[in-house]
Amino acid sequence: MRSSRSSSASRSSRSSFRARAAAALIASAAVIGSLLTAGSGVAHAADTPLRDLGAARGKVIGTAVTGSRLTGTYGDLAGAQFGSLTPGNAMKWGSVEPSRGTFDWAEADRIVAFAEAHGQQVRGHTLVWHSQNPGWLTGGSWTPAELRTLLRDHIGTEAGRYKGRIAAWDVVNEPFNEDGTYRSTLWYDGLGADYIADALTWARAADPAAELYINDYNVEGVNAKSTALYNLVRSLKERGVPIDGVGLQAHLILGQVPATFQQNIQRFADLGVDVAITELDIRMTLPSDSAKLAQQKADYKAVTAACAAVARCVNLTVWGFTDSDSWVESTFPGQGAATPYDANYAPKPAYYGISEALGGTTTPPPTGACTAVYTVQSQWNTGFTGNVTLSCSGASLSSWRVTWTYGAGQRITQSWNADCAQSGAAVSCRNAAYNGGVPDGGSVSFGFNASWSGGNPVPEVTLG
């Protein structure tokens, strides 16, 4: 097995990749400047973008994204604020090869192309995991030799497809139990612990320029699980297995940032590997309020400061930057509001916690506001389903009216939870008799079906 540092050619290719990424960041400055002035969703544009604050400290600030949403305000913010993108689901095995031998690269390709157009790195996620694998794989009956061949071919196919375009791969994801023993998975049970070393070796062969990571959760502080990961990385390096970094996911709970976070980052760095905060979000019990948001800001600031304090902590990625694109509420009922932006794309105190930890001077948005955000939930050849969510923070509503103007001939055909009327391109929706009140910290939503042809751009909405 070949060490990640033993080949001067592979070292040169990875250094060249970093140089190209840095050049792309500089070249994209004009693009970023134009994005920062576009649309009400980037009203905090006077503040230095997180990606620039991070770059000044030698850190890449990133976000996980959904490829289908990379338009409008979501796309503007993703491109302007972040220096790297992680496909949330688009590169997982179940997404790219849903049927054996039949591949779907569309969303992954879209994210990579978007990142390249905006001077961003891409973190590949993930090549080997126990979850979100295709049914044909998990439902099959494989000999160890067959399973090994399937895994090797998958890594070679996916990492090879994006060769030279991925800054880092989460090669192996979540290999440990909480007590530090190996998780019982298709891979561990079928191939033994050396599936990890083999996966790293195959990934290096497929893409010598990419940094190779092992990624896990609940390993942010010093504990049994993080110590098992530490011992694995040390052993892999001693054996000459290619391993460049460790990913600490950091799916945290409000007020529970580990006291040993920085110490833990440093001990991995002392092994001679890079460290990335790969999936940061900090969830709270809903509804949010000013005290919880203040604590969340302090927590985001503490995590960012811990990374900023260690030279080899090279990347801090939030797992979705807006609450409308977060996994938390569907996974942890009654909890949410875990990201730096609210569902209306307004920066929360958490955003400013990250910024301040990176040395930024920011101007918080005005308090006491209610906002409305328009999203397309699903779309087909001639129609789509839309949704508008109204949210209040430091203010409340006893009734509401939302208006917008379509720019491509869309026509509303049906609405629910609101009384909607359309005249020409102008749409006006008022609350129903039962949902006019929106309390401080609360929200209401309404939906509609509409037709479209030729294009379906998202309009700017006004709450009156």
Walk me through what this model shows:
- With 464 residues, the chain is of the alpha/beta class.
- The chain folds into two domains: 8-357, TIM Barrel; 369-463, Immunoglobulin-like (Sandwich), CATH 2.60.40.
- Helices cover 34% and strands 25% of the residues.
- The chain is built from 15 helices and 18 strands.
- It has helices at 8-27, 29-36, 50-56, 72-81, 93-96, 106-117, 135-138, 144-161, 186-191, 195-206, 224-239, 261-269, 290-308, 328-331, 349-357, and strands at 60-65, 84-87, 121-128, 168-173, 211-216, 245-248, 251-253, 274-285, 313-318, 335-336, 369-379, 383-393, 401-405, 411-416, 418-423, 426-431, 443-451, 461-463.
- It has an eight-stranded parallel beta barrel, surrounded by six helices. The protein has a four-stranded antiparallel sheet with strand order 11-12-17-14, with no helix packed on it. Strands 15-16-13-18 form a four-stranded antiparallel sheet, with no helix packed on it.
- The radius of gyration is 23 Å and the shape is globular.
- The termini are far apart.
- The model is unreliable at 1-11 and 16-43 (pLDDT under 50).
